[in-house]
Predict the structure.
Amino acid sequence: MVDEYQNFTPTVLRELLHLQERCGFPLLLAGNTHRLASTRRDTHAMDQIESRIGMRFEIGQPTREDCVRIGAEHNVEGTDSYEAIAIYGENTSLRALCYLLQNCAAGTSGFGSIRLPRIETTLRGMSCASDVLKLLHERRNGRQPQPQATRRSKRANGETVLSR
């Protein structure tokens, strides 16, 4: 497994793919879907490399269901707390939501549940922005709550597959 693959140069990616082909081991490339400026210069080479990748799987924004499950794993309690973390997750990312809840859990020292005041206090402590609580209480860009997750993956032949 190789994380942050979007940071690699085309030469490094080509070598990884050659190594994988020669040795026959599974290779999982994980990273962002956007290319960094340094790889955009060599668009043709990157397109050629990406065409050799067998399947793509894009996680996308977390859904309300994702956020609720993550909240339950972190011992979140209260309808208002679940509403806030769902909005936060939809406004940010899975990584940001997990980071927030891990910090909340650290603040409880493993005892008790995580309620809205703890979430708000922790978020304020993690950010210098004066309006940071908007991420918990206001949906960005008029976003509506997301339905059950639909995941997209792409086969080597370019066919897109949707799954729930």
